[in-house]
What we know:
CATH 1.10.630.10; globular; binds protoporphyrin IX containing FE
Amino acid sequence: MEGVMMDVVLVCLGLVFFRLWWRYWSVTGGGRKNLPPGPPGWPIVGNLIQVILQRRHFIYVVRDLRPKYGPIFTMQMGQRTLIIVTSSDLIHEALVQRGPEFASRPADSPIRLLFSVGKCAINSAEYGPLWRTLRRNLVTELINPARIRQCSWIRNWAIKSHMDRLLKFDGGIVHVMSECRLTICSILICLCFGAKISDEKIKTIESVLKDVMMVTTPKLPDFLPVLTPLFRRQVGEAKELRRRQLECLVPLVRDRKAFVLESDNVEDENVRKIMVSPKGAAYIDSLFELEVPGRGKDGGRRRLEEEELVTLVSEVINAGTDTSATALEWALFHLVMDQKIQEKLYKEIVDCVGTDRSPYTDQQKPQEEVITESDVEKMSYLSAVVKETFRRHPPSHFVLSHAAVKDTELGGYTVPADASVEFYTAWLTEDPEMWEDPGEFRPERFMAGGDGVDVDVTGTKGVKMVPFGAGRRICPAWTLGTLHINLLLARMVHAFKWLPVPDSPPDPTETFAFTVVMKNPLKAIIVPRSSMSSTKI
Length: 537
Ligand code: HEM
């Protein structure tokens, strides 16, 4: 009963607010002037209801609006103003040429703030000292080339387990996405905590973190924060999820800390067994030491707290798992559908590593170092297949939401500092002015003479495809993500021939699940290459 009264009071407050806003709307004709044009909205809710009524994800709504409204347009989503930027020139101007001006992030909803502990994550921090400290630490401790090389044993170990699991599917059906997610997630957990944990625990962490990602994608309360009190159920569910996230990861944080400090806890044989990276080699070891600005008393520096540590490692695991597994699923989709491309790739791999290095010389067990990381660097067709996958199926159709550091202009229009600036980068890769037959999957376009051969995926020289974003906020780990994909793809194609499941061909329909994935996850039949010399497939 008390709850109902509360709702009535909140609805009344909402109505008063709506009345005030309506008056403001009627007087100003929709608010600030010189915003980019956009679809006419309704009073108070703007375009929000129109988008909801379409029952499609926002990325598809924007795709349809682009031809009408062009390179830059506005969508008023409830209280939030979204400036959508779609043209190559404007994206390059904002992200690269005037990078620092557009390098901030917009305000977060209460649910997002819960998971980021008040924007204490690289991806959500505003452009400023906290972001700089966290990002610099990630780059020096996890992504520098020496550290990447030093951790190659982690990839070898995880990919060997991956291949062992696939071998059990011999002639059977592989669920590509779930296998790749498990492997990449185990690599990232080991990089973060220096720990080898059971597949069962990895799966639990992976599933909780996937839920975190889905719950933090923009929803109704994000667009109408004034009504947040009405969304008590959603906030309650988010708090419960945060509790589960902490329950999964805090024990690992504590075990690693005990290991690093050599406290009595490490007498625990189990902790010793799982902590496989030496002290100082795990990402979290650097976070234990890090002093971050702006979080201490009176805005000073202080060490990170346990909840913040959980947020920062979760960010790395989340950012690297879905993106890479999505790319692998789409790449294998095309290899299954087009056996000529698959055979061309297989031939390049065999030409490079030779036939002696068969993955099955060791009593039907894949060897650890069948294809090394320096081998994949030499495989130009592999690189072309992966680039074409990013072009044809960018894991994210927008980069993360950006914000201008102060009111500014772009394309002759005002961009207010409190607007979300959304860069629709997927359009670049579909633009027939930039790509020949953009709908075709054709890795050769990235080989000599092709229309993609000079493409710079970091967007510095110009933006034609930017799967990792560009400028200040570009994905700091794009080389690591690409390495995971190249290595896994090369080893999977070297060891197995990938075939469609008879009577159930792969379906390219897309759906949004933080990244843009296959609606019906890819299933494929695998046949060990070693068995094929005697059996004709
Ligand atoms: C194929 C794999 C990957 C893809 C396609 C990808 C893509 C992206 C994109 C599009 C952004 C947003 C850029 C922007 O807002 O302008 C981003 C940001 C980020 N990514 Fe990645 N990423 C990948 C792998 C990884 C991995 C492996 C990690 C961590 C080890 C990672 C960590 C991050 C972080 C921390 C940010 C936020 C950067 C910031 O706000 O300064 N990503 N990534």
